[in-house]
């Protein structure tokens, strides 16, 4: 679910002006362990370019999809091999009650440790919707962006993750030692809501290793056309649930689909689902109406409002609307207010509805079962557990206790302090590289960062990366390899971004 | 949609006692043109048995499915050939704005004319759900019933229709003249709600031919285990509509699916559909709440109530519940009241819901479009046109004018007088054959009989037939060829039923 978190970087003008040119990133900086290191590493990055491209392509060609139980064990093995190849000395496949994860450490004898979060799974796809076969990872020319790899997982997250690994390969190839030690934790269930990720992190050896870290990043590639990136200080939490109404559980209506003429004297589980659903939101569908859902909602702070106001000023509302294909925000609210809502409000969304006959035309049946796929997003200080309990209680109180609420995955909101080293190191890299960047209080998208930022680990955690890709969860997902836009880094520039980040983390006060 | 109309014949005890044995049907009766005719025809039926079975099988192997635009032109040609082979002298393919129909006449020089309605299309099917391939029309042993043909269309309606044709073949093979002249009208769009059938009937030559008829029957094979059949004096009307909510029509929400994190400030066409839907029915989903929908509903007459009371007494509520897989009727009403509701109340049913992601697990999208497939059933004196207009007005009045209401097909309710020759001839055949039979005021299922019973034709019309099959619209649809149940006719007995019916129509006063 690592997409769309930087939607409002689109069209952003420079917020914090760094050095003027991207080339600055490759000049020796204060963070470098030794003068000259950066040039040598840059050379190794260039030498390793073809191998790095091949690494992304091969990974895309070996998909793991948790929702379809596709190649999960193989995917974990593949992930473990990638870690070993990149120099991790200890690499361990970690079993869970679901699909396995991978835990790896690279002890470079450095003073500080840094955590890295990877997902090795990708979202489902339908090849018929793609202009290039999603598992072929073809290299194509994409107007405005340059040469891209197109394939499922290209930007979400194999491309950025492999770019991070390319940085490790390059540092080693250049004969340098890593400036920080690394802890890698990878899961294969991100796209189904990370239901077992905390099991990985809670393993004593994994927990002990992470506890030493300055924080955790997940590699990302979200530069906008003007080169800008957002640094998210947190993300909403998420639960995904299926609401299932059935004649079987209800004790009314049919046990299997029957002829629709019987509706006159037989109850309908589909109507029941519709009636249960409509109690969950306001009449306009925009405000959650689940009893007590706002109980723990923490209002935006003055600082958060100020950051949003800055983003609203610096980003084009028209561009955002165009990108989303919308003409109005809810309640016809103005841009800044809609961004405050985006960051601060919990949501109840219907991802999908499935009941009865779904093919072309009609079929005169009274379905025995109806399903609504929902996602609920949470802000601090809501929790997944409490939100699920409130949803169930709300339905039960209205007599819908038979409507099953099956949670498939989810996690609490995540937050990271603005003054943490992980955030300040990101700002330093972007500033040195001349990349326009801004702080954003909370991404409306979700990722399981709370596993790191929440108790007992309580580490800073967030996305970081240069480069660009798009189309997560959608057809024609891509990741830029050679950028035709001087403001946006290609694979090698993005690789150097990770190199610089590791040196920044090592040295920042 | 020719299924489930005899659901309450299941378990019926003899209502009207006829002659004790089914064999009576094959004894010379008052209706016969000449003594000895029946025996000769019976012999021809037996001689032609294998050819009759092959005729059903071959027709099933050549499916036409209007919803999928599958073999429609070929299906009409096939239908035309069947008519020619059965002795119709004039056979004509009739174009419509949709798929073609077939019009045929057989002038035997008799005094009276009888209309026959055929459908050559079948319902969609999923071979994966069948225990026997749905287009192979295999002959299998079915416990309790005997040898059956299993395949799509076996009972709905190719089996019964081909049985009627077998009667014509047998009469000719026996060297007899048909006792009545025939008008055949066939359509290929019954399963999509007969949207163009009235165009066929309104053609001047078709209309003129039908106008001469005593009435119209559609062949059916719905004998229950005890041999019983219902004679329906009418059927509810039906409209099938798709309600479509989309960002495009609404002018709010997205134009294409977007990431669900945007729900906080983007309107959802899916929630809009849910909110629009829930206004259409009472909170329990059972009573239509469309403004003015009951305006033209005609209450049951005393005679209709009496017929239902008789049916309620003579039929097993437990068997009906078991067949439908339900434990309660709506509002926990008692059996008789629920049957009155079934015959007398209009309904709004959801056949299917489709929005966003419908596969396994979840997908964090905010869908741009949501569709509900509805069927609305109507009782006299409601009309399809008025019901559609009321549905649209109801939505518009509540601000849902952007929710598209796309009607795919439908027709008004149909009614036939109890004292018409078509009904009395049926009663005579069943009585002579010792088949328990009862009158039922109105089937809750629907068929386009109103094209015949309504103005300007105003003919009696209904289903007729002996024999048995089941599974219309469902997997493993079948039609009995050789009955192992002495109370239920096989193919030859059902064929003789049509023979007798034609003689009854010719002679009844």
Q: What would you report as the Rg of chain A, rounded to the nearest angstrom?
A: 24 Å
CATH architecture of the largest domain in chain A: 3-Layer(aba) Sandwich
Helix content of chain A: 25-40%
CA-based shape of chain A = globular
Mean residue pLDDT of chain A: 92
List keywords for this structure.
homodimer; 509 residues; alpha+beta; Alpha-Beta Plaits; 2 domains; six-stranded mixed beta sheet; four-stranded antiparallel beta sheet; 20 strands; 21% strand; globular; disordered N terminus
How would you explain this protein's 3D organization?
The structure is a homodimer of 509-residue chains. The first copy, chain A, has 509 residues and is of the alpha+beta class. Chain A folds into 2 domains: 320 residues, Aminopeptidase; 128 residues, Alpha-Beta Plaits (2-Layer Sandwich). A 6-stranded mixed beta sheet of chain A has the order 1-2-6-3-7-18, with helices on both faces. In chain A, strands 4-5-20-19 form a 4-stranded antiparallel beta sheet. The longest helix of chain A has 20 residues. Chain A is globular and about 80 Å long. Strand 12 of chain A pairs antiparallel with strand 12 of chain B, so a sheet runs across the interface.
């Amino acid at each position: 679910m690592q997409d769309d978190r930087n939607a409002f970087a689109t069209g952003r003008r420079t917020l914090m002006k760094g050095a003027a040119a991207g080339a600055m990133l490759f000049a020796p900086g204060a963070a470098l362990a030794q003068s000259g290191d950066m040039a040598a590493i840059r050379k190794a990055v260039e030498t390793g370019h073809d191998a790095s491209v091949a690494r992304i392509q091969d990974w895309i060609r070996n998909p793991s999809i948790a929702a379809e139980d596709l190649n999960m064990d193989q995917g974990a093995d593949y992930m473990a091999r990638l870690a070993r190849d990149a120099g991790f000395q200890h690499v361990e496949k970690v079993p869970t009650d679901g699909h396995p994860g991978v835990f790896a450490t690279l002890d470079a004898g450095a003073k500080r440790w840094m955590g890295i979060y990877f997902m090795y799974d990708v979202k489902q796809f339908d090849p018929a919707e793609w202009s290039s076969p999603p598992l072929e990872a073809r290299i194509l020319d994409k107007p405005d962006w340059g040469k891209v790899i197109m394939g499922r997982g290209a930007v979400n997250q194999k491309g950025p993750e492999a770019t991070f690994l390319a940085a490790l390969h390059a540092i080693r190839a250049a004969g340098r030692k890593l400036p920080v030690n690394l802890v890698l934790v990878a899961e294969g269930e991100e796209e189904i809501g990370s239901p077992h990720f905390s099991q990985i992190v809670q393993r004593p050896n994994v927990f002990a290793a992470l506890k030493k870290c300055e924080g955790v990043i997940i590699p990302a590639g979200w530069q906008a056309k003007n080169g800008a990136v957002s640094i998210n200080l947190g993300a909403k939490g998420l639960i995904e649930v299926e609401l299932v109404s059935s004649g079987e559980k209800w004790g009314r209506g049919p046990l299997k689909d029957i002829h629709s003429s019987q509706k006159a004297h037989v109850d309908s589980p589909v109507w029941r689902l519709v009636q249960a659903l409509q109690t969950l939101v306001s009449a306009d569908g925009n405000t959650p109406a689940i009893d007590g859902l706002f109980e723990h909602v923490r209002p935006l702070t003055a600082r958060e409002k100020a950051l949003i106001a800055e983003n609203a000023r610096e980003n084009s509302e028209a561009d955002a609307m165009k990108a989303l294909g919308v003409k109005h925000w809810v309640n016809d609210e103005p841009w800044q207010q809609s961004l405050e809502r985006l960051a601060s409000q919990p949501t109840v969304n219907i991802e999908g509805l499935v009941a009865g006959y779904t093919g072309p035309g009609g079929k005169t049946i009274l379905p025995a079962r109806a399903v609504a796929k929902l996602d609920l997003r949470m802000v601090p200080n809501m929790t997944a557990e409490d939100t699920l309990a409130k949803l169930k209680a709300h339905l039960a109180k209205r007599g819908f206790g038979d409507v099953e609420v099956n949670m498939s995955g989810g996690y609490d909101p995540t937050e990271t302090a603005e003054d943490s080293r992980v955030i300040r190191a990101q700002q330093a890299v972007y500033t040195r590289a001349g990349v326009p960047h801004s702080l954003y209080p909370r991404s409306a998208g979700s990722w399981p960062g709370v596993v790191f930022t929440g108790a007992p680990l309580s580490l800073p955690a967030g996305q970081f990366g240069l480069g660009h890709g798009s189309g997560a969860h959608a057809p024609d997902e891509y990741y830029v390899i050679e950028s035709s836009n001087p403001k946006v880094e290609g694979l090698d520039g993005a690789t150097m971004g990770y190199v610089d980040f590791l040196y920044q983390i090592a040295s920042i006060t």
